[in-house]
Model the fold of this input.
Amino acid sequence: MAMYRKLGRESRQRQAMLRAMTTSLLEHGKIFTTEARAKEVRKFVEPLIALAVKEKDNYEEVTVKAKVARKDANGKRVKEEKTVDGKTVKVTVYDEVEKTIKKDKPSRLAARRHILAETYTVTSVPKEAAGRKKNTKQVDIAQKLFDEYAPKYANRNGGYTRIVKVGPRKGDAAMEVLLELV
Done:
């Protein structure tokens, strides 16, 4: 008996497909797929959520001073003129700001890196700015796991996903399912 389903793909294609589906499930919370694929994706997602639940509070808050560029009402950097070696140069004005950041402890950092290795980077585009590269944002899947999903599933011992059968697909009559996070 095989340890995994081959899903009609070569190894690298299968791994890429499962990684993409894992990323999509963690980003959106649900995906429509075939039953066999859903059962394979579940094997990837459940351990990642369990890891996030285990490491959710394993950080320390640190206050740091940072230089931040001063911005005007339009969101552009404020520049002032300075004379350097007899030349007038425009220089950006910076303000010092104290920020509180979460510093991961070693085991949480290792968990974060494991999660990032198992998923793809996600770029989201807001609907009002569709088609513009300027307004895109990187979605941190690991941060989403630690901040959203880990507190939600803290009191749950496994079983973070649910497979709901939708019915046969029209083209090839494969059983289509909804794989969602509980």
Notes: The chain is about 35% helix and 35% strand. The beta strands are 30-34, 59-69, 79-84, 87-92, 94-104, 122-124, 137-139, 161-168, 175-181. The helical segments are 11-28, 35-55, 106-118, 141-152. The mean pLDDT is 92.
